[in-house]
Structure formats: structure tokens, C-alpha cells
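seq as requested:
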Amino acid sequence: MKESRLGNWLEWQTTKTKVWLYLLYGVLAALAMWGVVYENHAPHFSIDKRYIFWAGFGWVCAVVMIFVLKKIVFPILGKSEDFYGDDK
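C-alpha cells:
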């Protein structure tokens, strides 16, 4: 009984993708603006003093991880559709 309520709620949330997207953008903008008012008290390098450095660093790392996974790891681990033989 509980699973059907959760499933119905999740199904209902899929119709509200724009709301979730705007909420995500709002949270990201708020975190970026927080970097403007929050002073980093212990920067290790001079670039750490920039208020948007960590957001940019995270974005660059995500793009690099996507590239590595898609171009290097997937061809190694990916198998063709008939790799294991026919189902006959």
C-alpha cells in the first residue's frame, strides 16, 4: 500500500519538471551569491580567493569526468548487443 502511494507521488512529480529545474537554478544562484558575501578565511592559493572559484572547479571536474567516462571507460566496458550469443 505504501509503495503505491510513493509511486503515485513520484509519477506526479515527473509532471513538474520545470518547477524542479527552476528550484535547482535558484539554489545554484543562491550558492554562487553566498560566495560573494562569505569570505574564505584560509585560501591555500591566490585563486581560492575568487568567489566563484569552487563552482567553476566543480563544473570543470564534472565535464572532465563525463569526457573520461564517455570516451575512455564506456568503450572498454561496453559490449555489443550479441556479445553473449543468441538466446536460442
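The mean pLDDT is 82.
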